[in-house]
Structures are given as structure tokens and as C-alpha cells.
From TrEMBL:
Keywords: Endonuclease, Hydrolase, Nuclease. This is Putative endonuclease containing a URI domain. GO terms for molecular function: endonuclease activity. The keyword Chaperone does not apply. Belongs to the UPF0213 family. Residues 54-130 form the GIY-YIG domain.
Amino acid sequence: MVVFVGMAVLAQPQAKPLAHLLKPPTSRLLPIAPPLSVILGLDPSIHAQHSARMAGYVYIVTNQKNGTLYIGVTSDLERRIYEHREGLTPGFAWKYGCTRLVWYEEHWDIGSAIQREKSLKRWYRQWKVDLVDAMNPGWDDLYLTLW
């Protein structure tokens, strides 16, 4: 690029292309690993069962339609909702009688479920109500549909 300043002509250095920064050096690449089931010597069905147990769930329970909302996260949705229904764990949901499961979402791992729970807790109430309405317009108790 050439810039004219008064009578002088200044040449600015050309920027180098950045393509070389976008490719990782080939010397640092690791060989492709075999599937985890091969490494562990596991039958693939066992590995799949193990992975399924590592799932996470985000859920919303309430005490009535458009009532108090509680957002939680768990790795075992059936057990956790049972605990809410039976009042086995004192806390916010127990205090306000939130026993009706009205919305839930499954995640591949508990970490992403926790992240989603934290995000939902920052939402405005109306957004949460709209989320429940989209999946469950009648705000029916979904607990019995889990089996």
C-alpha cells in the first residue's frame, strides 16, 4: 500500500497472510486413537450403557399451572422427581410444593446439563413459562411418562 503524505511517498509494509497460523504443525499431531471400547476391551453394548448413565437432565417442576417454578439438574431424572414428589429433600422446591414435572431436557453429559441449568436460571420468568408451554401446553405432570 502506498500513502501520499504531502510531497513524500511512504510505502507501508505488506501484511503477511495468516494462513500459516491457521494450520496446526503436523509434527504435533497425535495418531488417531482406537475407539474407547477397544482400549478398555469392552463390548460396545457395555460402553453404550455406561455412556447412557453419564447423561444429564435439566428439568422444571412447579406446584400448579403458571405457579412457582424450580429449575434443577440431575443425572437420574426418575429418582430426582420421585424425591421432589415425596418431599425427601428439603429446599426451595419442597418449601413451595413444587412436585409436578412440567418440562425436561436430556443432555449427553452432566456438565452440559449444569451449564444449561445455570443459563435457564438467568432467564426472565416469562421465557421459562414459554419454554414449558412449547413442550407441555397443558402443564401436565410428565413424571408418569418417564417409563
